[in-house]
Amino acid sequence: xxxxxxxxxxxxxxxxxxxxxxxxxxxxxxxxxxxxxxxxxxxxxxxxxxxxxxxxxxxxxxxxxxxxxxxxxxxxxxxxxxxxxxxxxxxxxxxxxxxxxxxxxxxxxxxxxxxxxxxxxxxxxxxxxxxxxxxxxxxxxxxxxxxxxxxxxxxxxxxxxxxxxxxxxxxxxxxxxxxxxxxxxxxxxxxxxxxxxx
Length: 198
Prior knowledge:
By secondary structure, this protein is mainly alpha-helical. It contains 9 helices and 2 strands. The chain has a domain at 51-188: Tetracycline Repressor, domain 2, CATH 1.10.357. Helix content is 65%, strand content 2%. A two-stranded antiparallel sheet has the order 1-2. Helix 3 (50-73) runs parallel beside helix 7 (116-130). The protein is globular. 26% of the residues are buried.
């Protein structure tokens, strides 16, 4: 029988706090049970196992992150939208490293496609990129470019990987400018024997 006061939502919110405190790898069923002062078995009425807990955590924080990005890009387009999107992404990743790490785990595609968090992430991200006139398969390629650039930069910055005297913010701004130029002059995928029109 579920323990009074515990719920799946409450456990996932606590897991998000725990991730920022001890790192994503430190989020376990046992660690969460200790946080609530209960036995591990008390949590299994709310989460099936560690994988289920971490998947729920990834979806929760992914939704939290995209909500902040959505607020930042609202009403913007082109370079302004890209700059706001990138800034909100970086701020979340640096301020919430444990939560951010959860967003990087692989989620079963069949599950991901059916969650509001993933649908909203696709809607906001693809909506921003359509402002550059991109369609598939270029949209997918552009998403991969942005994700790898943002993720790599944030990991290096968080880990103190930038040792040159150049201000990290200046380099970030240049990187976003370079992405804007790449998106503006995107090499279109050829279709039906001819290049896609502008």
